[in-house]
Amino acid sequence: MEIEYHYFFKNQFRPLSSLSLHEVAYFTCPASYVLPIERPDAYAVYLVDEGKGVYTLGGTEFPVKEEDVFVMYPNTPIRCVSDKNEPLKLYALSFDGVDARSLLNAAGFEPKNPVRSFNLETAVSFSKVFNGIYTWRGQEIYSAIQSTSMIYLLMATLVKTSTWDQSAMPPGWTGAVHFQKAIDFIAENYMRTINVTDIANHVNLSRSRLYQVFMQQIFISPQQYLTEYRIREAIRLLEKRKGSVKEIAIAVGFDDPLYFSRFFKQITGKSPKNYMKKLIDRKN
Protein backbone atom coordinates (compact mmCIF):
# COMPACT_ATOMS: atom_id res chain seq x y z
CA MET A 1 0.00 0.00 0.00
CA GLU A 2 1.04 3.58 -0.64
CA ILE A 3 0.84 6.85 1.25
CA GLU A 4 -2.44 8.74 0.84
CA TYR A 5 -1.47 12.36 0.23
CA HIS A 6 -3.94 15.02 1.31
CA TYR A 7 -1.55 17.59 -0.11
CA PHE A 8 2.07 17.77 -1.27
CA PHE A 9 4.27 20.54 -2.62
CA LYS A 10 7.95 20.45 -3.60
CA ASN A 11 9.71 23.78 -3.91
CA GLN A 12 12.19 24.19 -6.77
CA PHE A 13 13.01 27.83 -6.03
CA ARG A 14 15.40 28.37 -3.08
CA PRO A 15 16.84 31.88 -3.22
CA LEU A 16 17.32 32.43 0.52
CA SER A 17 20.36 31.14 2.42
CA SER A 18 18.76 31.74 5.83
CA LEU A 19 15.90 29.24 5.46
CA SER A 20 14.35 27.79 2.33
CA LEU A 21 11.41 25.44 1.96
CA HIS A 22 12.04 22.07 0.33
CA GLU A 23 8.73 20.23 0.73
CA VAL A 24 5.50 20.45 2.67
CA ALA A 25 2.97 17.63 2.88
CA TYR A 26 0.06 16.14 4.80
CA PHE A 27 -0.51 12.42 4.40
CA THR A 28 -1.81 9.21 5.91
CA CYS A 29 0.41 6.13 6.18
CA PRO A 30 -0.87 2.56 5.77
CA ALA A 31 -0.56 0.17 8.71
CA SER A 32 3.04 -0.93 9.41
CA TYR A 33 4.26 1.38 6.64
CA VAL A 34 7.93 2.40 6.57
CA LEU A 35 8.54 5.94 5.31
CA PRO A 36 10.67 5.79 2.12
CA ILE A 37 13.32 8.03 3.65
CA GLU A 38 16.64 6.57 4.72
CA ARG A 39 18.95 9.59 4.72
CA PRO A 40 17.18 12.98 4.43
CA ASP A 41 18.74 15.65 2.24
CA ALA A 42 17.43 18.48 4.44
CA TYR A 43 16.17 19.26 7.92
CA ALA A 44 12.56 18.25 8.55
CA VAL A 45 9.85 18.75 11.16
CA TYR A 46 7.03 16.19 11.40
CA LEU A 47 3.83 16.65 13.39
CA VAL A 48 1.82 13.55 14.30
CA ASP A 49 -1.83 14.40 13.64
CA GLU A 50 -3.19 10.92 14.34
CA GLY A 51 -1.95 7.45 15.22
CA LYS A 52 1.41 6.33 16.50
CA GLY A 53 4.65 4.77 15.36
CA VAL A 54 8.36 4.41 16.01
CA TYR A 55 11.00 6.89 14.85
CA THR A 56 14.62 5.72 14.83
CA LEU A 57 17.52 8.17 14.76
CA GLY A 58 21.14 7.27 15.42
CA GLY A 59 20.19 3.72 16.28
CA THR A 60 17.85 4.83 19.09
CA GLU A 61 14.11 4.19 18.85
CA PHE A 62 11.66 6.91 19.89
CA PRO A 63 7.93 6.12 20.12
CA VAL A 64 5.83 8.90 18.57
CA LYS A 65 2.14 9.55 19.03
CA GLU A 66 -0.59 12.10 18.37
CA GLU A 67 0.53 15.71 19.04
CA ASP A 68 4.23 14.80 19.02
CA VAL A 69 6.74 16.67 16.87
CA PHE A 70 9.91 14.95 15.69
CA VAL A 71 12.79 16.24 13.59
CA MET A 72 15.14 14.80 10.97
CA TYR A 73 18.67 15.93 10.18
CA PRO A 74 20.29 16.00 6.73
CA ASN A 75 22.49 13.08 5.73
CA THR A 76 21.63 11.24 8.97
CA PRO A 77 20.18 7.71 8.72
CA ILE A 78 16.59 7.47 9.98
CA ARG A 79 13.68 5.05 10.00
CA CYS A 80 10.02 5.79 10.70
CA VAL A 81 7.43 3.01 10.97
CA SER A 82 3.67 3.45 11.24
CA ASP A 83 1.82 1.36 13.85
CA LYS A 84 -0.07 -1.68 12.56
CA ASN A 85 -3.23 -0.83 14.54
CA GLU A 86 -3.09 2.98 14.70
CA PRO A 87 -1.30 4.14 11.53
CA LEU A 88 0.31 7.55 11.37
CA LYS A 89 -1.21 10.65 9.85
CA LEU A 90 1.55 13.23 9.47
CA TYR A 91 2.26 16.83 8.62
CA ALA A 92 5.75 17.11 7.11
CA LEU A 93 7.94 20.13 6.46
CA SER A 94 11.50 19.94 5.11
CA PHE A 95 13.81 22.92 4.76
CA ASP A 96 17.45 23.98 4.74
CA GLY A 97 19.51 27.07 5.45
CA VAL A 98 22.19 28.46 7.72
CA ASP A 99 19.66 29.23 10.47
CA ALA A 100 18.06 25.78 10.50
CA ARG A 101 20.31 23.92 12.96
CA SER A 102 20.59 26.80 15.44
CA LEU A 103 16.83 27.28 15.51
CA LEU A 104 16.18 23.58 16.08
CA ASN A 105 18.76 23.61 18.88
CA ALA A 106 17.05 26.61 20.47
CA ALA A 107 13.71 24.79 20.13
CA GLY A 108 14.99 21.98 22.33
CA PHE A 109 15.75 19.41 19.64
CA GLU A 110 19.03 17.56 19.21
CA PRO A 111 19.98 14.22 17.67
CA LYS A 112 19.84 12.47 21.02
CA ASN A 113 16.48 14.08 21.82
CA PRO A 114 14.58 14.54 18.50
CA VAL A 115 11.00 14.30 19.82
CA ARG A 116 8.84 16.73 21.78
CA SER A 117 5.24 16.36 22.97
CA PHE A 118 2.65 19.15 22.85
CA ASN A 119 -0.93 19.72 23.93
CA LEU A 120 -3.82 19.74 21.48
CA GLU A 121 -4.08 23.53 21.25
CA THR A 122 -0.40 23.96 20.35
CA ALA A 123 -0.49 21.04 17.90
CA VAL A 124 -3.48 22.62 16.13
CA SER A 125 -1.60 25.92 15.82
CA PHE A 126 1.32 24.01 14.28
CA SER A 127 -0.99 22.33 11.78
CA LYS A 128 -2.29 25.74 10.70
CA VAL A 129 1.26 26.81 9.88
CA PHE A 130 1.79 23.70 7.74
CA ASN A 131 -1.51 24.39 5.96
CA GLY A 132 -0.54 28.03 5.50
CA ILE A 133 2.76 27.13 3.88
CA TYR A 134 0.91 24.87 1.45
CA THR A 135 -1.74 27.54 0.78
CA TRP A 136 0.94 30.07 -0.17
CA ARG A 137 2.93 27.56 -2.25
CA GLY A 138 4.52 28.68 -5.49
CA GLN A 139 7.82 29.15 -7.30
CA GLU A 140 7.71 32.96 -7.32
CA ILE A 141 9.98 35.05 -5.10
CA TYR A 142 6.94 36.26 -3.14
CA SER A 143 5.91 32.68 -2.36
CA ALA A 144 9.46 31.78 -1.33
CA ILE A 145 9.59 34.70 1.11
CA GLN A 146 6.12 33.91 2.43
CA SER A 147 6.95 30.25 3.06
CA THR A 148 10.22 31.21 4.78
CA SER A 149 8.40 33.65 7.05
CA MET A 150 5.99 30.89 8.08
CA ILE A 151 8.84 28.46 8.78
CA TYR A 152 10.27 31.13 11.09
CA LEU A 153 6.83 31.41 12.70
CA LEU A 154 6.82 27.68 13.39
CA MET A 155 10.36 27.87 14.77
CA ALA A 156 9.43 30.82 16.99
CA THR A 157 6.57 28.84 18.52
CA LEU A 158 8.80 25.81 19.06
CA VAL A 159 11.45 27.99 20.72
CA LYS A 160 8.87 29.76 22.89
CA THR A 161 7.52 26.44 24.17
CA SER A 162 10.93 24.89 24.85
CA THR A 163 12.19 24.42 28.39
CA TRP A 164 15.37 26.53 28.44
CA ASP A 165 15.40 29.76 30.49
CA GLN A 166 13.65 32.33 28.30
CA SER A 167 15.60 35.16 29.96
CA ALA A 168 18.88 33.65 28.81
CA MET A 169 20.33 33.13 25.36
CA PRO A 170 19.29 29.87 23.70
CA PRO A 171 21.63 26.94 24.42
CA GLY A 172 24.62 26.84 22.09
CA TRP A 173 24.32 30.46 20.95
CA THR A 174 27.52 31.55 22.68
CA GLY A 175 29.87 32.63 19.93
CA ALA A 176 26.97 33.31 17.56
CA VAL A 177 28.65 36.38 16.05
CA HIS A 178 31.77 34.44 15.09
CA PHE A 179 29.66 31.55 13.83
CA GLN A 180 27.55 33.82 11.64
CA LYS A 181 30.65 35.49 10.24
CA ALA A 182 32.16 32.06 9.50
CA ILE A 183 29.13 30.68 7.66
CA ASP A 184 28.75 33.91 5.71
CA PHE A 185 32.37 33.55 4.62
CA ILE A 186 31.71 29.95 3.56
CA ALA A 187 28.58 30.94 1.61
CA GLU A 188 30.53 33.62 -0.25
CA ASN A 189 33.69 31.57 -0.88
CA TYR A 190 32.81 27.86 -0.96
CA MET A 191 33.51 27.76 -4.71
CA ARG A 192 37.14 28.66 -4.04
CA THR A 193 39.75 26.34 -2.52
CA ILE A 194 39.25 27.64 1.01
CA ASN A 195 39.94 25.49 4.07
CA VAL A 196 39.32 25.65 7.83
CA THR A 197 42.45 27.76 8.40
CA ASP A 198 41.13 30.37 5.96
CA ILE A 199 37.81 30.45 7.82
CA ALA A 200 39.49 30.73 11.22
CA ASN A 201 41.73 33.56 9.99
CA HIS A 202 38.73 35.42 8.58
CA VAL A 203 36.86 35.38 11.91
CA ASN A 204 40.08 35.95 13.90
CA LEU A 205 39.88 32.72 15.90
CA SER A 206 42.23 29.79 16.31
CA ARG A 207 41.26 26.55 14.56
CA SER A 208 40.54 24.92 17.91
CA ARG A 209 38.30 27.77 19.08
CA LEU A 210 36.48 27.82 15.72
CA TYR A 211 35.86 24.09 16.13
CA GLN A 212 34.37 24.71 19.60
CA VAL A 213 32.08 27.43 18.25
CA PHE A 214 30.74 25.16 15.49
CA MET A 215 30.21 22.30 17.91
CA GLN A 216 28.32 24.64 20.27
CA GLN A 217 26.16 25.95 17.45
CA ILE A 218 25.39 22.99 15.21
CA PHE A 219 27.24 19.96 16.65
CA ILE A 220 29.41 19.46 13.56
CA SER A 221 32.96 20.61 12.77
CA PRO A 222 33.80 23.53 10.44
CA GLN A 223 35.27 21.05 7.96
CA GLN A 224 32.12 18.95 7.92
CA TYR A 225 29.94 22.05 7.51
CA LEU A 226 32.10 23.29 4.61
CA THR A 227 31.98 19.88 2.91
CA GLU A 228 28.23 19.48 3.38
CA TYR A 229 27.63 23.02 2.14
CA ARG A 230 29.60 22.30 -1.02
CA ILE A 231 27.74 19.03 -1.59
CA ARG A 232 24.35 20.76 -1.13
CA GLU A 233 25.36 23.34 -3.73
CA ALA A 234 26.51 20.52 -6.03
CA ILE A 235 23.11 18.85 -5.66
CA ARG A 236 21.40 22.06 -6.73
CA LEU A 237 23.63 22.28 -9.80
CA LEU A 238 22.93 18.64 -10.63
CA GLU A 239 19.19 19.26 -10.33
CA LYS A 240 19.53 22.17 -12.75
CA ARG A 241 21.82 20.15 -15.08
CA LYS A 242 24.52 22.81 -14.78
CA GLY A 243 27.45 20.93 -16.30
CA SER A 244 29.32 17.65 -16.06
CA VAL A 245 30.39 16.05 -12.79
CA LYS A 246 33.89 17.46 -13.24
CA GLU A 247 32.58 20.96 -13.96
CA ILE A 248 30.25 20.85 -10.96
CA ALA A 249 33.06 19.60 -8.70
CA ILE A 250 35.21 22.57 -9.69
CA ALA A 251 32.26 24.96 -9.35
CA VAL A 252 31.78 24.03 -5.68
CA GLY A 253 35.46 24.14 -4.69
CA PHE A 254 36.79 20.63 -5.36
CA ASP A 255 39.91 20.43 -7.54
CA ASP A 256 39.76 16.64 -7.75
CA PRO A 257 36.52 15.13 -9.22
CA LEU A 258 37.29 11.74 -7.64
CA TYR A 259 37.66 13.38 -4.23
CA PHE A 260 34.37 15.19 -4.86
CA SER A 261 32.62 11.96 -5.90
CA ARG A 262 33.82 10.19 -2.76
CA PHE A 263 32.40 12.87 -0.45
CA PHE A 264 29.22 13.13 -2.52
CA LYS A 265 28.52 9.41 -2.11
CA GLN A 266 29.50 9.53 1.56
CA ILE A 267 26.91 12.24 2.22
CA THR A 268 24.09 11.32 -0.18
CA GLY A 269 24.56 7.57 -0.43
CA LYS A 270 24.91 7.81 -4.24
CA SER A 271 27.62 8.78 -6.68
CA PRO A 272 27.02 12.03 -8.63
CA LYS A 273 26.30 10.04 -11.80
CA ASN A 274 23.80 7.75 -10.05
CA TYR A 275 22.19 10.75 -8.36
CA MET A 276 21.79 12.45 -11.74
CA LYS A 277 20.34 9.24 -13.22
CA LYS A 278 17.81 9.11 -10.37
CA LEU A 279 16.75 12.69 -11.15
CA ILE A 280 16.28 11.83 -14.83
CA ASP A 281 14.31 8.66 -14.04
CA ARG A 282 12.08 10.60 -11.63
CA LYS A 283 11.14 13.11 -14.33
CA ASN A 284 10.48 10.51 -17.02
Radius of gyration: 19 Å
Instruction: Identify low-pLDDT runs.
Output: none
Count of extended strands: 9
Cα end-to-end separation: 23 Å
Describe this structure in words.
The structure is a single chain. The chain is of the alpha+beta class and 284 residues long. The protein has two domains: 4-160, Regulatory protein AraC (Jelly Rolls); 176-283, Arc Repressor Mutant, subunit A (Orthogonal Bundle), CATH 1.10.10. The chain contains ten helices and nine strands. Strand 4 and strand 5 (60-65) form a beta hairpin. The longest helix is centred in the middle third of the chain and has 20 residues, at 141-160. It is globular.
Structural key phrases:
284 residues; alpha+beta; Jelly Rolls; Arc Repressor Mutant, subunit A; 2 domains; six-stranded antiparallel beta sheet; 10 helices; 9 strands; globular
How would you summarize the topology of this molecule?
Blueprint lengths: L3 E7 L9 E9 L14 E8 L1 E6 L2 E6 L2 E5 L5 E5 L6 E8 L3 H7 L8 E3 L2 H16 L5 H20 L15 H14 L6 H8 L3 H12 L3 H18 L5 H7 L5 H12 L3 H12 L1
Antiparallel strand pairs: 1-2, 2-8, 3-6, 3-8, 4-5, 4-7, 6-9
